[in-house]
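Tokens in:
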């Protein structure tokens, strides 16, 4: 604990900086009032608001850190630059400034000239305490364990909104944050290694350090589902960035009615990149052929255009560049030109016989109309499929469309197809960004990735995920399968985060027993802190839901933020138990998390975290997905503190023969043996790595060696 005198000294600096900040904010407001007319005033007011936001909220801490170097004045680091208005002296530098880098990158092994790094703990702008890391030349080999400030931040209770980590970003995380803009950067790491937090801070860092490229074009952050988007939505505004667009993956593409369910096999077909070719061919096949002679009535006289001339123009435009709608406009212009050459002067913009001919040759189409008509017709599907789809696949794709387009309900897998159709018809989306961040990217289909890729104006992307958490119809085992569908304009880099900050060691070790089956080649994360052991509660089926709710209530009584992660099979019982006990709860499928008990499906739990997690019936979670062990690994790793597993029979990981009841000592974990499926997956993965990392002329030899080793 810092001494009162030291805290007083620091507080004086904080008070001075707070006063300077208020002065800067009111000066920004005054500038807006000085505008010459209303339009300029509105514009200036917008800039003033942005500037005031960027300076930070009144009453918030002006700084979170300080660095000391021998013979130099200390530097205070906060979310925003603050100058003394009288002397123009810098009181606090923004955390993204190059001068702040050493606060984050200094380690005992490489202190970068610093003698000390101080992290403040504040309530508003009042300093409660601070934690120091002292760098001494005598201890360069000291291992860099988690410092007190980090452990303190990790121990804080969670809520339904993610917090920034600006005060305690770790050296390896900062290195990823400041990676070059012109990259496709993949950030991979186990659960709770800070991928999401790092990516959001990277956005803020990029906006400050690359204003010319990004301030006008903007940044887009794409998450896996609405609850996640809402959960992370306060981080960037808290860092002073209000203009970053945050969407979930289903919000890309034309606005349509959603909610149609889709089978897994159909999801697999619809997500494949070859669907893009199917749509492009389907669009071409909508083009018509002219009659040998096209007779048009214009202003009471008939004009005949030779079909061969028109056909040649249509063929040229069909094979030409540009979106479909733009080429349609070009065709109209050419038709008008042909008419003018036959003496028709000034063809009006709307002329019925020209419009009719144009509609026959090059029909006006919306993305939903194209897709509905395609999926609704076996003949259209067959014609567009060529050799690329089997008859069985065509039969699977075919479905009866709604009679009225406005009544059509679309599935999640239709959305990227509509977006692709929109691209083919209308060209690149109106909203393109200087940088795009994609979270939980390991689960996205090629068609979803294409949809994201076309929103990056320059090919600059940050892609984050964890292959060991990859589930669903598009579960991945390699990042190559993801990046193959992203723009190739910039180099691709994979950055790994090794340290797990969320999950306590005792819970992580339990969850990691699933890894040999879930993701055999994944190295476990290195956990930085301890916590309570998982509680295993074996119950009768009739008591399962009631017990889960009772455990959740006990956590709420301790003021914990709780997630009950429950497979669909158990959900009605759990909802009934919550109702029977008159417990207020929130449902993640309504896009929002409450402050107490939240009922969450395993899929929705991705990316979220709670103080306490109650996992209901692991076996059903495993059974619910082809990569069910990964899904369970996700569910187990959502906790910052407590994990309780409520089950009938074994809690999984099944190979842990007998786990002690809640609070008891579990036996030492045993290494699970691999079943035939897991072994086949492992073999496939080894072969894939050999292919990726060895020159092709050595594959056979390396694989023969590997087979021999396995036989022996
Ligand atoms: N340097 C840090 N300082 C303080 N907290 C941190 C730090 N790094 C990560 N955390 C915390 O660890 C938790 C996990 O972070 P985050 O959700 O970004 O991890 P993730 O790798 O995206 O996890 P998952 O793959 O499970 O979604 C968050 O509560 C985050 O605030």
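Residues out:
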């Amino acid at each position: 604990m810092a001494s009162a005198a030291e805290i007083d000294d620091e507080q004086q600096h904080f008070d001075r900086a707070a006063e300077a900040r208020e002065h800067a904010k009111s000066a920004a407001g005054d500038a807006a009032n000085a505008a010459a007319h209303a339009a300029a005033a509105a514009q200036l007011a917008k800039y003033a608001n942005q500037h005031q936001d960027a300076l930070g909220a009144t009453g918030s801490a002006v700084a979170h850190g300080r660095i000391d170097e021998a013979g130099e004045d200390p530097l205070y680091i906060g979310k925003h630059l603050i100058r003394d208005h009288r002397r123009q002296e810098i009181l606090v530098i923004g955390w993204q400034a190059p001068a702040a880098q050493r606060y984050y990158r200094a380690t005992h092994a490489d202190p970068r000239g610093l003698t000390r790094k101080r992290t403040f703990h504040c309530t508003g702008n009042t300093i409660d305490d601070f934690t120091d890391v002292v760098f001494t030349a005598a201890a360069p080999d000291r291992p860099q364990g988690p410092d007190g400030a980090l452990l303190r931040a990790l121990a804080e209770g969670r809520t339904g909104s993610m917090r920034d980590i600006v005060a305690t970003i770790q050296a390896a995380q900062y290195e990823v944050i400041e990676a070059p803009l012109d990259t496709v950067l993949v950030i991979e790491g186990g659960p709770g290694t800070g991928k999401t937090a790092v990516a959001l801070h990277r956005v803020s860092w990029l906006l400050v350090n690359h204003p010319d490229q990004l301030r006008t074009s903007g940044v887009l952050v794409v998450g896996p589902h609405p609850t996640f988007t809402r959960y992370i939505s306060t981080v960037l505004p808290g860092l002073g960035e209000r203009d970053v667009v945050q969407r979930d993956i289903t919000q890309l593409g034309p606005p349509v009615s959603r909610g149609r369910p889709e089978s897994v096999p159909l999801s697999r077909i619809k997500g494949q990149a070859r669907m893009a070719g199917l749509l492009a061919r389907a669009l071409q096949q909508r083009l018509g052929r002219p009659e040998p002679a096209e007779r048009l009535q214009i202003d009471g006289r008939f004009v005949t255009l030779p079909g061969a001339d028109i056909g040649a123009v249509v063929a040229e435009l069909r094979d030409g560049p540009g979106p479909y709608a733009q080429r349609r406009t070009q065709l109209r212009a050419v038709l008008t030109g042909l008419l003018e050459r036959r003496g028709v002067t000034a063809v009006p913009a709307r002329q019925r016989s020209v419009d009719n001919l144009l509609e026959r040759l090059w029909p006006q189409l919306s993305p939903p109309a194209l897709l509905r008509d395609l999926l609704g017709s076996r003949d259209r599907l067959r014609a567009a499929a060529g050799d690329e789809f089997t008859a069985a696949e065509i039969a699977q794709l075919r479905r009866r469309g709604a009679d009225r387009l406005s009544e059509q309900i679309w599935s999640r897998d239709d959305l990227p197809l509509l977006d692709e159709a929109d691209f083919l018809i209308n060209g690149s989306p109106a909203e393109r960004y200087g940088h795009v961040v994609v979270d939980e990217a390991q689960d996205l289909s090629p068609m979803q990735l294409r949809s994201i890729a076309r929103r990056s104006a320059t090919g600059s992307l940050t892609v984050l995920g964890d292959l060991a958490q990859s589930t669903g119809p598009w579960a991945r085992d390699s990042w190559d399968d993801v990046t193959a569908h992203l723009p190739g304009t910039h180099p691709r880099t994979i950055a790994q985060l090794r340290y797990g900050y969320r999950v306590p060691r005792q819970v992580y070790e339990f969850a990691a027993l699933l890894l040999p089956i879930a993701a055999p080649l994944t190295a476990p994360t290195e956990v930085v802190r301890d916590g309570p052991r998982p509680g295993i509660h074996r119950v009768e089926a009739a008591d399962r839901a009631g017990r889960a709710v009772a455990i959740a209530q006990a956590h709420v009584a301790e003021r914990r933020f709780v997630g009950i992660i429950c497979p669909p099979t158990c959900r009605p019982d759990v909802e009934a138990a919550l109702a029977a006990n008159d417990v207020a709860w929130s449902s993640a499928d309504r896009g929002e998390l409450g402050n107490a008990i939240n009922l969450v499906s395993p899929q929705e739990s991705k990316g979220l975290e709670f103080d306490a997690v109650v996992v209901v019936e692991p076996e059903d979670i495993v059974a619910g997905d082809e990569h069910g062990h990964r899904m369970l690994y996700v569910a187990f790793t959502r906790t910052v503190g407590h994990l309780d597993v409520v089950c009938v029979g074994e809690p999984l990981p099944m190979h842990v023969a007998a786990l002690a009841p809640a609070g008891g000592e579990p036996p030492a974990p045993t290494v699970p043996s691999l079943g035939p499926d897991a072994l086949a997956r492992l073999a496939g993965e080894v072969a894939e790595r050999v292919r990726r990392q060895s020159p092709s002329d050595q594959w056979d030899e390396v694989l023969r060696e590997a087979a021999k080793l396995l036989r022996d």
